[in-house]
Amino acid sequence: MLYYINMGIKGYEKLSLVDYDLKLSATIFFGGCNFRCPFCHNSSLVLNPNSVQDIPFCEIVEHLKKRRGIIDAVTFTGGEPTLFKELKTYVKQVKELGFLIKLDTNGSNPSVIKNLLDENLLDYIAMDIKNSLTKYPFTCGVQINIENIIKSIEIIMDSNIDYEFRTTLIKEHHLEEDIYDISNLLKGAKKMTLQKYIPSENCIDASLNEVSKEDASKYVSILKKTISDVSLRGY
How far is CA 179 from CA 8, 23, 50, 53, in A? Predict the structure, then answer.
């Protein structure tokens, strides 16, 4: 069952060179999340979003109007944006300004993803794959509906837009056997990115460690057996 949260927009990055591949983008950050991933760098948005002041969406719209022709896209991220009741309304308004739209999601709300796709409101989706299905609760920090994760993967892979799946590699969470399981889960996908974990005091658990480049490169080789495009990010 889908539920919504009342958290608003908690951050706005006016220019990003990394959120949307090969595009200049702005990034909108929603507060609140239904996961508690220990490696999350946006811990304040997840654990205590009320501590961050809301940014009125109307102010962002007015800024974006001035950025037409300068930036190409707007990324909606979080937290978890699909939990926000006004997401589609906001996406529509930004889309009508002429920007490409990217959605970052944990895949927990497949119905929201499908609805946005059905209305041709998205140009790019990045879905986090936390771990193998058996270790999902361990890595995302809560008990979840695994079927929703599978549905979101299927919806995204069946879409006609650009997408990527991505996994942040954590030494304490990701073993070679997990990568084989992820490879089978995403068989036939177009793109997968393995991200380097960077320890930070902003993380929910600052004691975690990165996977070595040697092991990360080995994981790329495993994933390339079933996924067309696999790359490292941050290494």
Answer: 35, 29, 36, 39
Cis peptide before 79 (omega within 30 of 0): yes
- The string of DSSP codes covering 18-42 is SSSTTS-EEEEEE---S---TT-S-
Neighbours of 190 (CB within 10 A): 14
Q: Which of 1-5, 24-28, 200-204 has the lowest mean pLDDT?
A: 1-5
Report how far residue 120's alpha carbon sits from residue 37's, in angstroms, rounded to the nearest whole number: 30
- Half-sphere exposure at residue 181, Cβ-oriented, CA atoms within 13 angstroms: 14
pLDDT in tens, 95-138: 999 999 999 999 999 999 999 999 999 999 999 999 999 999 99
Topology, domain 9-233? TIM Barrel (3.20.20)
